[in-house]
Specification:
This protein is of the alpha+beta class. The chain has helices at 48-62, 77-85; strands spanning 6-11, 21-28, 31-39, 67-73, 89-99, 105-114. It has a 6-stranded mixed sheet, covered by helices on one side. A hairpin with a 5-residue loop joins strand 5 and strand 6 (105-114).
Length: 116
């Protein structure tokens, strides 16, 4: 996180000492990749992720980012819905990328959002 190309945002609720969620990306020139977005289980379903990611995307745009990329595990319906709602679209897939607890592997869906 000390790298100047890493952009991170967090959100706290109430007087909590721990964040209710965070998002982290890495910027390279006019592109960025979302590395991780996390919302605490107790905070899910309250649109916190959408607000957090929306604010993060605005911050990236302010830094000159034109395109944002991310990967999401196929079958992560809530995450896919969030990303599509914010305008991300599928641009590719990596078959068998994510290992699952049952020994199978899930595809990674590569997505892109054009900010400009």
């Amino acid at each position: 996180m000390a790298d100047g190309n890493v952009v991170a945002d967090g959100v706290f609720t109430g007087a909590a000492a721990r964040p209710a969620g965070f998002v982290m990306s890495r910027q390279a020139a006019d592109e960025a990749e979302i590395l991780s977005i996390v919302v605490a289980p107790a905070q899910r379903g309250h649109r916190l992720g959408a607000s957090l990611l929306g604010a993060h995307l605005s911050r990236l745009a302010g830094r000159g980012v034109i395109q944002v990329f991310l990967e999401v595990e196929e079958g992560n319906v809530a995450a896919e819905r969030l990303y599509r709602h914010l305008g991300f679209r599928e641009v590719g897939r990596r078959k068998g990328y994510y290992p699952k607890s049952d020994g199978s592997r899930a595809a990674a869906i590569a997505m892109r959002l054009d900010l400009a």
